[in-house]
UniProtKB/TrEMBL annotation:
InterPro entries: CHP02588. The keyword Membrane applies. It comes from the Bacteria. This is Putative periplasmic protein. The chain crosses the membrane at residues 14-38, 45-64. It comes from Helicobacter mustelae (strain ATCC 43772 / CCUG 25715 / CIP 103759 / LMG 18044 / NCTC 12198 / R85-136P) (Campylobacter mustelae).
Length: 168
């Protein structure tokens, strides 16, 4: 538990703190306007709602900004696949850092997929299949490329899969 909190706090940098500060300032501004208009009928509740919305939307703005702008990655070459005669998965991937910040570490997630029907979609929501993760350290400067080749344990080779690359 403490390790996950430490790793989350370790990954927060200055641009993310600026976005968080802006969202908190907007929240305080809407809260003060709501307090100033307390005698009115509709406006205070509207501004209190905007205050809560701006406060709780901060993590989503931070996640979107870091994924789409600061640490954006483009996959150049992907030949990853489950191996046929062993319970393992070959990750053969090359990607480029198209963001504005240097990437320090990445996580590859392999999510098995079920067939598309209503029963399987409900099963994916309530009881998803086991995912496999691979975390690696990488010093990738902006507009530089990196190639990964490794084999990890994977026990769902009969299912289709989705590969997700997340870098910070």
């Amino acid at each position: 538990m403490i390790d996950s909190i430490y790793s989350t706090l370790y990954n927060i940098d200055i641009p993310m703190l600026v976005v968080l500060g802006i969202c908190v300032l907007f929240s305080l501004l809407f809260l003060l306007v709501g307090i100033a208009l307390f005698k009115r009928r509709f406006f205070p509740s509207f501004f209190f709602l905007l205050s809560l919305l701006s406060l709780f939307s901060a993590p989503f703005f931070i996640a979107y900004g870091s994924k789409k702008f600061l640490f954006k990655t483009t996959i150049l070459h992907n030949q990853s696949r489950p191996l046929m005669f062993s319970d393992s998965f070959l990750i053969h991937l090359s990607f480029r850092n198209d963001g504005y910040r240097k990437i320090k570490h990445c996580m590859i997630t392999i999510s098995p997929k079920r067939e598309k029907n209503l029963r399987n979609q409900l099963l994916d929501i309530f009881k998803p299949l086991e995912r496999s993760y691979y975390v690696f350290s990488a010093d990738i400067s902006p507009h530089a490329a990196k190639q990964i080749q490794t084999i990890i344990p994977y026990f769902m080779r009969e299912h289709a899969f989705k590969l997700i690359l997340d870098c910070r």
